[in-house]
Please model this.
Amino acid sequence: MEFKLKYKDGMARVCEITTAHSTFQTPIFMPVGTVGAVKSLDANDLKKELDAKIILANTYHMYLRPGLKVIRNFNGLHGFTQFDRSFLTDSGGFQAF
Model:
């Protein structure tokens, strides 16, 4: 992963993040796919209609459903969702406790 500061104006800044799956600037709109899927949108819609560069998924919810076995059967989250761009996963710590 690579992080670059692109622009700065006072306290505001624009940064560029490059991951193995995509490059995007922050701040960014990040659709929420709690269990790996964004409701009512498939991977093609996310890329072509929304031009989503990254999706937020919740690790704890993914663990509960669809579960580790299912995700492994698809060779990971990208295979499960067919979304070939980046994911940000949170720890799910809040839900666990």
Q: What stands out?
A: The first strand starts at residue 2 and ends at 9. The CA atoms of residues 29 and 52 lie 8 Å apart. The longest helix spans residues 43-49.
